[in-house]
Amino acid sequence: MDVEASLLQEIHDDPNDETNWLVLADWLEEQGDRRGELLRLTLARSANPAGRGAPTREARLQELLASGVRPCAPVLTNGLGMQFALLRAGKFLMGSPKKEKGRQANEGPVHEVEIARPFYLGAFEVTQAQYQKVMGSSPSHFKDNPNNPVEQVSWEEAVAFCKKLSEMGEEKRKKRLYRLPTEAEWEYACRAGAVSSPFHFGGSLSSTQANFDGNHPYGGAPAGPYLQRTTPVGSYSANAFGLYDMHGNVWEWCQDWFDETYYNESPRQDPQGPHDGERRVLRGGSWGVSGWCCRAACRNGYVPGGRSHGIGFRVLFPA
To answer: Cα 248 to chain center, whole Å?
Structure first.
């Protein structure tokens, strides 16, 4: 096993030990590998999102991503071949500031949230091929590529997928209990250290960066292609946590009930959403929406039994 793989394995073995993450960042920097700086910046942002120098660190993180630096993320592949990025526990600022263009009232107030436990989140949205293997069929509208995200899946069906995946051979033996991410876990994962910007890579969005309606870009970005359909997962660059398509492609179901005013009363640590409601949370935007809907803070909701060819999901299991 090479040095990098060995250090990543130590992180998998004990994701709560911050020293393991810092040792990896140190080693990468000693090799002249800029992924070390990127990793150190995400660690600093997760530890103290609003601390002194935070805007400078965020700008540098986005500069590294824009220059083509790819994250050094601990990745686990399950028995089905699905890849999961390991996210350490951390803090972030949830919601959008009042000055953010396109902001909706349900995105505030901005509040600090602590994700107290590390978790593995799907590096990609669940694909049609993966859904077919678990559930026996694919309900998708866009059927020409099995690596496209599955869509036309209700919240109830996404939950059923998690349950069935958890009961499969290797997953059951390793006690991996799959579920949908909470709304807070999803936004923490989407931001990936870029706490104050609308997107993990900065303040603007064009359809060369994510799959959405390129006729309606965001933040001064030029108009771009409008594909009018899903694209294979991973077609665009990953964020600093090694996660793809957190902006656009398909809306993603979250575990929580949707409540317009929930942020006024949500707990600081590991919020789970309201106790009940009529709609479940959707996050991330889709191929068919404007750029402002793809912002990290944008919140949406839909009835649990509802389906659309713009709605899919990704799954999580605790570390």
So the answer is: 11
Burial 75-88 (b: 16+ CB within 10 A, else e): ebebeeebbbbbbb
Distance, CA of 9 to CA of 56 (rounded, Å): 31
Report d(CA 156, CA 313) in Å as an integer: 11
pLDDT single digits (tens) 32-55: 999 999 999 988 877 778 777 788
DSSP labels for 159-191? HHHHHHHHTSHHHHHTT---BPPPHHHHHHHHH
pLDDT in tens, 250-296: 999 999 999 999 999 999 999 999 999 999 999 999 999 999 999 99
Q: How far is CA 256 from CA 24, 59, 110, 188, 282, in A?
A: 34, 31, 18, 15, 9
- Please state, as a whole number, how many other Cβ atoms lie within 10 Å of the Cβ of residue 200: 26
> Token pair of 258, please?
């949707």
Note if the pTM is more than 0.85: yes
Give the whole-number percent of the chain exceeding pLDDT 70.
100
Q: Which residues contact 173 (CB under 8 A, 6 or more apart)?
A: none
Based on DSSP, count helices (H) and strands (E) in the chain, helices before strands. Answer: 8, 10
CA distance 52 to 44: 11
Per DSSP, 248 falls in state B
Cβ atoms of residues 247 and 190 within 8 Å: yes
Neighbours of 2 (CB within 10 A): 7
Omega within 30 of 0 (cis) for the link into 181: no
CA distance 172 to 166: 6
35-47 helix and 18-30 helix, angle to the nearest 10 degrees? 150
